[in-house]
Structure formats: structure tokens, C-alpha cells
Amino acid sequence: MGLAKARILPSMPRTRLPSQSTAHDSALAQQIGGRIRDARKRSGLTQQQLAGDRYTKAYVSALETGIARPSMVALSYLAERLSLPPSHFLDEQNPAWSRLAVDMTLASGDWQAAADGYASLLDIPIDDLGRAQVLRGRAEALARLDKGKDAVTAAAEAARLFASLGRISDEALARYWLAYGLYLSDQEADAQSLLSSLLERVRAGLKVEPDFEMRLLTALAAVASRSGDYARSLTHLETARGLAEDLDDRRRAMFLFNLAISYQETGDLEAAIRTGTQGLALLRSAGAGFESAQIENTLALAYLSSGNIERAAEFADKARAAFEEVDDDRFLCAVLDTDAQVALAQGRLDDAVTTARRAMEMARSTGNHGVELTALLTEARALRASDDTEGAEARFAQAATLARAGHSAGRTREVLREWAELRATLGDHRGAYELTREALSVK
Asked: Left (φ > 0), alpha (ψ -120 to 50) or beta: where does 265 sit?
């Protein structure tokens, strides 16, 4: 019996999309820079002294003249050195600067705070361009929080406003996040159609961002993978590979992560392990522990499929520890399912059932329906191996209901075929025939 390919699903690339800079933004940045300069002089510090061991004199100079905009991380650091709160440097009464502050919150990775910040900005009178920019930022924040339907609403309005203003590149970026929201809402066909249209426009000459074509290809690969078309997913990623050479280490590593998953899905386990190991090395060198754990879980499954249970357990242990440290149950549940699969492969059937059930419950509570389904399958297989055919039957029935409700055709066929195999073993040949017929009819 094959092991389920439970994993952290490949995600569409979530690159931060900066807002278009305006003359008003620049004036506000200069205002903030002036406040930094005045505070520095009152403290009797040189630019080099204010920079400390984290930044450079040139960077502080760029901030003070308004050439560069500080991130919230940088502003907090400099404010602490000047014995002032970060709010001292922000014009809290100015809605435009507040938008820049929320943009910085998004860039820092505080998705919920960014989503809340953008929502508050939408209650303030703002022109159509500003509203479109706020909506696009909110769409990204919501997508990163896996709130697909809300992301769709925000991104669709942003795209409409940008189109009415003739901001074609901005419209394309908003439509990218619209596609992401559709992907998260299990509307793979609509996401694929939108992404394919964007790719055609870019290849026809639309100028968006230097790496936008590569991101679109990676997104199309993620959609194809979720739909069960692993060969097409791999084709998209192989096409994008040549465009990924100039990425920074972190983003190149995440590209390799998606490529490793596609290799695993198509059965090329050697390539999956090789590519995943390359991505893991890049992430570790960049100090990206969270992303490293994602690849470690993928490598665990690749080693498990290749029969190397010891290495699979080793990588799963590392991934679990990382997600437990950051208390991220949405990703932890995927690793718990991997643990359950390892236990099943080792013949520890009771442990497999217990761990798969824990993974399933955690996935359900966090809305991770993909892992909820794979955990149900893992538990069903463990129960069947334990000769608990009644329990296995019940779990296959639950898995089939969940798969029919919104998962890919490939995953639905997988569930139905395994359930049919169990029924045939029990002598229920009519029931097995009906399930097999349903599996063949799934498109």
C-alpha cells in the first residue's frame, strides 16, 4: 500500500509588492527624515554613531534626506538609540503616511496587523488611487493569512480601480493577488485562467516587475500541483528555473522547494531529494528557520517514499521542532501527519492512528483542509493495517466527503479507489464497483 503524499502544499509565491511611490510620499519621507536628523543632533550623535553596528552612515544619511524610507524595524532600532518612541517620527494625523506605515508592517511580516491597518485606512476619505493601493495591500495580507475569499474581494476591487485609472501594471499585480485568493478558495480553474492570461500579457510586452514572469510560472505550477496535474506543474517550474538564477538566496530556495515537491509528485525521488537539499542549504545560510522547516518536511516525505525511513524520521523531527517553537499549528499539523506516516511504515500502528488523528483535529481547527484530508487517509490506512476494517471504512467515508467538497480530481480519485479496494477485500464487490465507477467519472 502506498503512503499518502501528505505535505505542506506548494504555495504560490508571496513576494511583497511595494506601492508606487508618489511625490507626496517622498515629501512625507523627508519629513520623517528631518525628525530623525533633529533628534540625532539633540542627542549629540553622529550619523555613524546612530547607525550603530546594524546600519551604515550612508543609510542614516539617506533616511535623513528622505531618499530612503525606513522600515518599521529600522525605525524602532533608531528610535531606541535616540530614547524616543517610534511614534515620535510618524505623523499620526496624516492618512498617507499611515498607509506607508501599514506598508512597512506588511513588509515586516505582521500580516494580521497589516490587514487590520489597511481596513482602518479604508474608513478614511481617500482618492481612487489611494484606495486601490490600500485594497491591494490588504489583499496580500489576507492571502498570507490564508483568507482566500476576503482576499478575492479586496483584490477584485483594487484591479477594477487600477484599470479605471489606466494603471495597467498595478492592475496586473492586483490580479495576481486575486488569483491567489481564488487558489486559496479552491477555485483552481479560475486561478489558472487568470494567471495564464497575465502570463500571456507579460510575454506580449506588459512591463510589471523584473521577476513577475517567473512568479506567474511558479504560481501556475502550484495550481497545477493542487489539481493533481504534477507533470504540468513540473513543466512550469522547469521553464521558470532559468528565470530564477538572479533571485536572492531566500527566494531561490523557496523556488527550489516548489520544484522539489513537483519532482516528488512525479515520482523522481532522487531529483526531489537533491533539489530540496539545495534549497535547504540556501535557507539555512540565510537564517530562515521557518522556511527551512517546510523543506525539511518535504524531504522527510521524499525519503519515506524512497524507503529510507530513518532519514525521513530525522527530517520530520527537525521540522516538527521548528513549527512547535513558533507555535504554528497550521504547518505543524502537516508534520504530524508525516510522523504518522513514518509510524505506519515502521509498523507502529497504534502510534500512527493516534498521531494521524491529532494531525487531523489540528488541521480542522486551523482550516487546513488539505492536511485534514491526508491525515484522514493516513488514519484509514493504519486502521486497515490493524484489521479495524469498520474504523477504516468510516475514515475513508469521511475522506471521500471532504474530497468531493472541494479538493482536486486526482486526490478525490485516490480516496475513492482506496475505499473501493477496502470494500472489495471485505467482499462488498457491488460497493467497490460503485466507488470505482465514481472515481473514473471524476474530472
From this structure: alpha
Question: Measured between alpha carbons, how far is 5 from 230 in angstroms, rounded to an integer?
Answer: 12
Neighbours of 195 (CB within 10 A): 28
In this model, does residue 260 exceed pLDDT 80? Answer: yes
Question: Which residues are within 8 A (CB) of 178 and not within 5 positions of it... i.e. 6 or more apart?
Answer: 139, 151, 152, 155, 156, 159, 194
Q: Choose which CATH entry (3.40.190.10, 1.10.260.40, 3.40.50.720, 3.90.180.10) describes domain 23-108.
A: 1.10.260.40
Burial of 440 (0-12, 13-18, 19+ CB in 10 A): exposed
DSSP 8-state assignment for residue 9: -
Residue 143, all three cell numbers: 492571502
Distance of CA 231 to the CA centre of its chain: 21
Could you tell me the maximum CA-CA distance found in the chain, to the nearest angstrom? 87
CB atoms < 10 A from the CB of 169, how many?
Answer: 14
* Residues 328 and 366: beta-carbon distance below 8 Å: no
Quick check: 382 and 349 in contact, CB under 8 A? Answer: yes
Q: State the residue for C-alpha cell 490493524.
A: 386
- The Cα–Cα gap between 14 and 81 comes to 33
Provide, rounded to the nearest whole percent, the portion of the chain with pLDDT above 90.
41
Statement: residue 177 has pLDDT above 80: yes
Q: What is the mean pLDDT of residues 56-83?
A: 81
Q: How many C-beta neighbours within 10 Å does residue 31 have?
A: 15
The one-letter code for the residue type at 296 is E
| 175 neighbors 140 (Cβ within 8 angstroms) | no
DSSP state of 19: P
Question: Do the Cβ atoms of 162 and 132 come closer than 8 Å?
Answer: yes
* Domain map (residue ranges) of the chain: 23-108
Q: Which of 285, 257, 289 shows the shortest CA–CA distance to 273?
A: 257
**How far is the C-alpha of 84 from the C-alpha of 78, rounded, in Å?**
9
Q: Give the count of alpha carbons within 13 A of 242, CB side only.
A: 3
